[in-house]
TrEMBL record:
<feature type="transmembrane region" description="Helical">
    <location>
        <begin position="352"/>
        <end position="371"/>
    </location>
</feature>
<feature type="transmembrane region" description="Helical">
    <location>
        <begin position="137"/>
        <end position="161"/>
    </location>
</feature>
<feature type="transmembrane region" description="Helical">
    <location>
        <begin position="79"/>
        <end position="99"/>
    </location>
</feature>
<feature type="transmembrane region" description="Helical">
    <location>
        <begin position="290"/>
        <end position="312"/>
    </location>
</feature>
<feature type="transmembrane region" description="Helical">
    <location>
        <begin position="248"/>
        <end position="270"/>
    </location>
</feature>
<keyword id="KW-1133">Transmembrane helix</keyword>
<feature type="transmembrane region" description="Helical">
    <location>
        <begin position="391"/>
        <end position="409"/>
    </location>
</feature>
<dbReference type="InterPro" id="IPR045018">
    <property type="entry name" value="Azg-like"/>
</dbReference>
<feature type="transmembrane region" description="Helical">
    <location>
        <begin position="54"/>
        <end position="74"/>
    </location>
</feature>
<keyword id="KW-1003">Cell membrane</keyword>
<feature type="transmembrane region" description="Helical">
    <location>
        <begin position="173"/>
        <end position="193"/>
    </location>
</feature>
<dbReference type="GO" id="GO:0005345">
    <property type="term" value="F:purine nucleobase transmembrane transporter activity"/>
</dbReference>
<keyword id="KW-0812">Transmembrane</keyword>
<dbReference type="InterPro" id="IPR026033">
    <property type="entry name" value="Azg-like_bact_archaea"/>
</dbReference>
<protein>
    <submittedName>
        <fullName>Putative permease</fullName>
    </submittedName>
</protein>
<dbReference type="Pfam" id="PF00860">
    <property type="entry name" value="Xan_ur_permease"/>
</dbReference>
<feature type="transmembrane region" description="Helical">
    <location>
        <begin position="25"/>
        <end position="42"/>
    </location>
</feature>
Length: 441
């Protein structure tokens, strides 16, 4: 009779990757600790669109579990997946609150993106598109999203407010809600500086306790444990009325673009740290990993949550020794346990999760060091991408402006050969989108 250890060895190649079941289980717990803030942030953020917070909570967890089952059993890689930061902000603040679409419209765009990704994964198109976009814009998108998320967090916390005279200004800092935000942020920053795993989660917990003490938040009237909230208010609510429009293409492409770079970049970075990259610089099983990511996105859209993607926090589990898909399965187990803890997650105040957004914003701006600032055909489009996202309050506009300006500057300086055919096509599409109101169509 086959022992449990031999079954795990045969399934996950533990010895080959110099690990064991205990290490993999603890690595999954570490990954969960560092990314579990998404179970608070995502329902809070998407609920601003009118979506049911409990339904989003359940949808986020179930979609994450399914994606991690594929990642663990199909790809055998130590990566965790859930609703991606930046993509959920674009979903909420750009597509719904800024562009005025219903949240079901945004879910439809996410669903279509996931279907396209599944097709692209079979034909290795994702990697081909990724290589066609200049590195300066790839880095700028990450930085711009980081700035955008930071602004979202500051506004959500009430630290930055609307002001008719100056557009935005500093809010009331000497208040109990602001104190919760400041303390949460400082705890996260301090623990991050000390390399404490789960720093964001601990900061959220500290902020929640302080909010309860100050009366900013209140304990639920019932039990702290319950059955998962129903999916029915948010599941299978896709909207098919405006498929063939510039807006739908723009929204879907932005989800596609950001998810593409986020996933491929995260897989490459974390796999390198785990020593899973082969001598040719490739990640064995990357096609299966990308397919797992795409399946998670499709399932998530159907259930009622924003784009599911591979989390960079997977690096924390890798740092703790995670090397196989057993780490992903372990993380999925803790997500499952969280299904029954919605009353606990529901008492977390917006000020605590806003602090997490600011810290994630910080983490995302690190690629700015890789942008060639002395080459203005590279730095100007990158800069426009970065500043347009927060100032126009739109990730999509930042990407559009960056691509158009990149092509214009390269061509105008006689360096058009540096621009890929894909970039020319995308720049043309986005230019037509801006010119649409004055074109005789």
């Amino acid at each position: 009779m086959e022992t449990n250890s031999s079954f795990l060895e045969r399934t996950f190649s533990l010895n080959e990757r110099k690990t064991n079941a205990k290490t993999e289980f603890l690595a999954g717990l570490t990954t969960f600790m560092t990314m579990s803030y998404i179970l608070v942030v995502n329902p809070n953020m998407l609920s601003e669109t009118g979506m049911d917070k409990g339904g989003v909570f359940t949808a986020t967890i179930v979609a994450s579990i399914i994606a991690m089952l594929f990642m663990g059993l199909f790809a055998n890689l130590p990566f965790a997946l859930s609703a991606g930061m930046g993509l959920n902000a674009f979903f909420t603040y750009t597509v719904v609150l800024s562009m005025g679409h219903d949240w079901s419209y945004a879910l439809t765009a996410v669903f279509l993106e996931g279907i396209i990704f599944i097709v692209m994964s079979f034909f290795n198109i994702r990697e081909a598109i990724f290589t066609s976009i200049p590195m300066s814009l790839k880095n700028a998108v990450s930085v711009g999203i980081g700035l955008f998320i930071t602004l979202v967090g500051l506004i959500s916390a009430g630290v930055i407010v609307n002001n008719d005279a100056t557009l935005i200004s500093l809010g009331e800092i000497a208040s109990r809600p602001s104190l919760v935000f400041i303390v949460s942020l400082m705890v996260m920053a301090l623990l991050t500086a000390k390399n404490v795993k789960g720093a964001l989660l601990y900061g959220i917990i500290t902020g929640t306790v302080l909010a309860l003490i100050l009366g900013v938040s209140h304990l639920p009237g019932g039990m702290l444990f319950s059955l998962p909230p129903s999916l029915s208010p948010v599941a299978f609510k896709l909207h098919w009325g405006d498929l063939f429009t510039f807006d739908m293409f723009s929204v879907m492409f932005t989800f596609l673009f950001v998810d593409l770079f986020d996933t491929v970049g995260t897989l490459t970075g974390v796999a390198t740290k785990a020593g899973l990259i082969d001598e040719d610089g490739n990640l064995p099983g990357v096609g299966r990993a990308l397919l797992s990511d795409a399946i998670g996105t499709v399932v998530g859209a159907l259930l009622g949550t924003s784009t599911v993607t591979t989390f960079v926090e997977s690096a924390s589990g890798v740092a703790d020794g995670g090397r196989t898909g057993l780490t992903s399965l372990s993380c999925a187990f803790f997500f499952f346990v969280s299904l029954f803890l919605f009353p606990i997650f529901s008492i977390v105040p917006a000020q605590a999760t806003s602090a997490a957004l600011v810290m994630v914003g910080l983490f995302m701006i690190s690629p700015i060091n890789q942008i060639k600032l002395d080459d203005y055909t590279e730095s100007v489009p990158a800069f426009l991408t970065m500043v347009t996202m927060p100032f126009a309050y739109s990730i999509a506009e930042g990407i559009s402006v960056g691509m158009i300006s990149y092509v214009i500057l390269k061509v105008a300086t006689g360096r058009g050969k540096e621009v890929s055919p894909v970039m020319y096509l995308l720049a043309l599409i986005f230019t037509l989108r801006y010119l649409r109101p004055i074109l005789p169509l």
